[in-house]
Design brief:
single chain, alpha+beta, 23-stranded antiparallel beta sheet, 23 strands, disordered N terminus
Length: about 775
């Protein structure tokens, strides 16, 4: 042993507590004789005498290094002796490991110990021998673990490890629980008892899973252990029994069992039971689908003939009539034409079911199929009438579209007309006309619109990406007669993706609150009545009574809490009699009162103070077109509302009910403030509503010229009162904003226009015109 330490040590660090009385002994006064007695008595196993001799060593302040070593070795020998009252082999080992022997002192110590048949190695081995002995006496996992912890490379390391595993196994056997065996098999995989412990663990886990009677628990056990294990085989058998006997006696459950348990001992039994289970289930439930499944799954089974000739036809007929099931009746008629007694009854019921369904919803494709199946049905005319009304109200019809339009992408470009120039040439991208005016091609994208229609011809989605309506749309909106109709009301919500404000007087002239860019979505009921319009800024919710007459529109702002409105409708004898607009506080904004007197309609509009603002008297022809219209404007004078002015309009139509001419004449109440020259200019007043009214200076006829597809190609205004008043071009622009405009079209195979070019006629000369707008439409169809 080669260890080198400091030569001076505190005696308290090397001598056990029981020998504290000898602290500070002087090495020089130590008796060599006493050292000999100590080791001699230790050699003879006379520990008590050795201890007495150790106590007689006189005290001194210092030891020599050699004497310190002897003292420490003596301490180790005494503490490691079982005869000593102070026996403690662990403390002896601790002291031994603290001994510091330099090479200089090693030879002398070796010679000294040799006299007493001792060596450093024998002293150390004896200490370890006692430590192992104590562990063996306790024979516990903990005692061996303690001994091994002190043994870095001692001779008993392997033996102690083996003994620790054996002791641990004994303790696990005493506890005899799953967790203990899991611990042992995980910790002592090399133990001679590992296999025995593993088998015991398998047994305990098996009985635990078995006791719970759980398929999940047994499956967990089976997946965990070797498939050849006897307990695993038992678990598989028990699990198969549980699964089989717990499977509901339904075909789909037994089918699933067969598909997922092919290794089960009950597989063949379950498979053989499938036909009986399916047949009994189909018969008990009178389920046609299950009988069909039987035919598919077991086509060679004996009961197939009975199912085909008896069960299925009877169930199709009976359930088809009882449950109004068109699929069953259709199949019965198709598959069993020889059932002559029942065929006619089935057809009559099928016709009735389809008729009721078609009358209570809008399904044009199903209607076409109905006409093919029942060409002589008396219901066809009734359905056609109803569908024609719905189609007339559709967005296809309102937008003058032909065919089953699915989607339209519209792009409109504006060409800027610049001032006249003297020269006639081409400068860069400017095209110069003979008149001297020139334009810039494709100056600006003005209209960018996407319209999607559902299969019933109504808007599904509108996306307004930019721009606004073109001049022709604005013109036709301004000159057409006023119509108060619920259908116009709903359409006005979403035309061109613009959601209209409820605060204006007239439905068709409702204020458009700016360009509403973005996506607008539409929802409908089964009658294709609009029920919801959703825009990023607001939502319109429309409700109907049972007869599908609209009773309210609720506008909810999605941006501002206090910007909501409601319109309510009242009906009398199937005609709209009242329309009322309320603000978000449910306060009255405007009230529309409608009277129907034969072919005349009188509309009075009153404000929030219940004062009449306007009265519109319209007269219709036998086709329902308004032929003349009187618009009376009121003002409060001398405490009462009186007519201050009124306008008369006269309309004519083409054979296709398209507007052709509009004659307009305005009247103003006679005013005492007018000068004599003005009164003379107007001429003699006329009597109207208990007052005198002068005929206004503006009296004209607007002629609308259309092509063979009824599309507007020109709008001309002719003044009838030129001798009294000459209109200026500026004023004409003020009235219509389209003075001198012409339009040309390109059509697709369905006669829907796909390009419209607007021209500006210069100085009234039809041969001189400049391109102003071009609008292109990309149309796709169903």
């Amino acid at each position: 042993m080669n260890k080198t330490y400091n030569l001076v040590l505190n005696i308290n660090k090397v001598i056990p507590l029981i020998f504290l009385f000898i602290v500070s002994l002087s090495v020089q006064n130590l008796s060599a004789q006493n050292f000999k007695k100590v080791f001699k008595n230790i050699e003879k196993d006379k520990v008590e005498k050795a201890t007495e001799a150790f106590k007689k060593i006189s005290s001194s302040k210092e030891y020599t290094a050699l004497d310190i070593i002897k003292t420490e070795l003596a301490t180790v020998l005494i503490r490691n002796s079982k005869s000593s009252n102070d026996y403690n082999c662990y403390e002896a080992l601790k002291t031994y490991k603290q001994i510091q022997i330099s090479k200089k002192n090693e030879t002398e110590i070796t010679e000294f110990l040799k006299k007493y048949n001792l060596t450093l190695t024998s002293i150390e081995d004896n200490v370890y021998k006692n430590i192992l002995g104590e562990a063996k006496e306790l024979d516990t996992e903990a005692s061996y673990e303690k001994a091994i912890a002190l043994c870095d490379s001692c001779y008993f390391f392997k033996e102690a490890k083996s003994l620790m595993a054996n002791a641990a196994f004994k303790e696990v056997q005493q506890k005899n629980d799953i967790q203990s065996y899991i611990y042992f098999t995980t910790t002592y995989k090399n133990s001679e008892y590992y296999e025995e412990a593993y088998n015991k663990l398998t047994e305990l886990e098996f009985y635990k899973a078995k006791s719970k009677n759980s398929v999940e628990g047994l499956n967990s056990f089976i997946e965990k252990y070797d498939s050849k294990n006897e307990y695993v085989l038992d678990a598989i058998s028990i699990k198969d029994s549980l699964v089989y006997f717990r499977t509901p006696k339904k075909y789909k459950d037994y089918k699933l069992f067969v598909q997922t348990n092919k290794a089960s001992k009950y597989y063949s039994i379950a498979q053989s039971q499938l036909p009986d289970i399916l047949f009994d289930e189909a018969k008990k439930e009178n389920n046609i689908s299950l009988f069909d499944l039987f035919l598919k799954e077991f086509p060679k089974e004996d009961r197939v003939t009975q199912i085909k000739s008896d069960f299925i036809p009877n169930l199709l007929f009976e359930q088809g009539i009882e449950n109004q099931n068109t699929d069953f009746l259709e199949r019965f008629i198709s598959d069993y034409p020889n059932e002559t007694k029942k065929i006619d009854l089935a057809r009559n019921n099928l016709e009735t079911i389809y008729t009721n369904s078609l009358l209570n919803s809008y399904a044009p494709l199903k209607f076409e199929s109905f006409k093919e199946k029942f060409p002589s049905s008396e219901s066809i005319k009734q359905i056609e009438l109803k569908y024609s009304i719905i189609l007339k109200e559709s967005d296809w019809n309102k937008n003058d579209l032909n065919g089953r339009v699915k989607n339209i992408i519209t792009k409109g470009y504006y060409y800027e007309i610049l001032p006249k120039r003297t020269q006639s040439t081409t400068i860069n991208k400017f095209k110069i006309f003979a008149t001297g005016g020139f334009i810039i091609d494709d100056r600006e994208l003005q209209i960018d619109l996407e319209e999607s229609y559902n299969e019933n011809g109504n808007y599904e989605k509108v996306i307004l990406n930019g721009g606004s309506r073109d001049n022709l749309e604005k013109l036709m909106k301004n000159i057409r007669p006023y119509k108060l109709s619920v259908d116009t009301e709903t359409a006005s919500i979403h035309k061109f993706g613009e959601l209209k404000h409820f605060g204006e007087y007239l439905d068709d002239d409702m204020y458009i609150s700016g360009s509403r860019y973005g996506e607008v979505l539409f929802k409908y009921n089964s009658f294709q009545k609009l029920t919801e319009v959703i825009h990023k800024n607001e939502k319109h919710s429309i409700s109907y009574e049972e007869s599908q007459k609209m009773i309210s529109i609720r506008r909810t702002s999605l941006s501002y809490d206090n910007n909501n409105h409601t319109i309510k409708y009242l009906w009398s004898k199937n005609r709209l009699s009242k329309k009322t607009i309320y603000d978000n506080q449910n306060a009255l904004v405007f009230n529309y009162s409608i009277q129907n007197n034969g072919n005349q309609i009188i509309l009075e509009i009153t404000n929030e103070y219940n004062q009449i603002d306007k009265r519109i008297i319209s007269t219709k022809n036998n086709k329902g077109n308004i032929t003349n219209e009187v618009i009376e404007n009121f003002n409060r004078t001398s405490g009462r509302n009186v007519i201050t002015a009124f306008t008369k309009k006269y309309f004519t139509y083409s054979k296709h009910n398209k507007l052709l001419t509009v004659k307009t004449q305005s009247y103003s109440r006679k005013n005492s403030k007018f000068s004599a020259s003005i009164n003379a200019f107007y001429g003699n007043p006329i009597k109207y509503d208990n007052g005198e009214f002068y005929v206004g200076p503006i009296e004209s006829i607007t002629n609308i010229i259309r092509d063979k597809n009824n599309m507007v190609t020109a709008v001309n205004t002719v003044e009838l009162n030129k001798k009294n008043y000459q209109h200026s071009n500026e004023y004409r622009h003020g009235v219509f904003g389209v003075w001198g405009k012409r339009w040309e079209y390109v059509y697709d195979e369905n006669n829907n226009w796909i390009q419209r070019i607007e021209y500006e006629v210069l100085d009234g000369n039809e041969s001189l015109k400049n391109k102003n707008y071009i609008i292109k439409r990309d149309i796709t169809y169903y």
